[in-house]
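Sanity check

After download, print the first record. It should look like this:
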Amino acid sequence: MEAGLVVSEKQKDEPIDNGLPYWCNYYQLASDTDKNATIAECNEVHRIVKKAKHGSRLFTAVFDKEIDADKVAPLKARVKALMQRTHPDKAQGLEYEFKMMQECSKWIKSGLPLPQQPHQANDS
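Expected structure tokens:
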């Protein structure tokens, strides 16, 4: 793709001042689409791992601090792949995303809280 080409994407935006949702075109250079997609994926993975490690907070209460055991391995592989794609030696301008993926890797290695097993009828 040439750097001079412009691509657009139509997204549904949130309403402003209690109005209705609306559609908006977002434009970017064609050469930046891969970089922007990588940044968006890093932000999504960081949000998922952070929520699994630290939970969500509402005022002072912490809740939703769990992840299924079968989702940890694919998440770990996804973090590792993103670390390789955002490594400063391979990609310029993605240093912040590389640090985010390092943080995610550290959180996964330290252990993510898994959901508590429900009590069986014969458990004491």
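If your output differs, re-run the checksum step. Summary of this record's structure: The mean pLDDT is 79.
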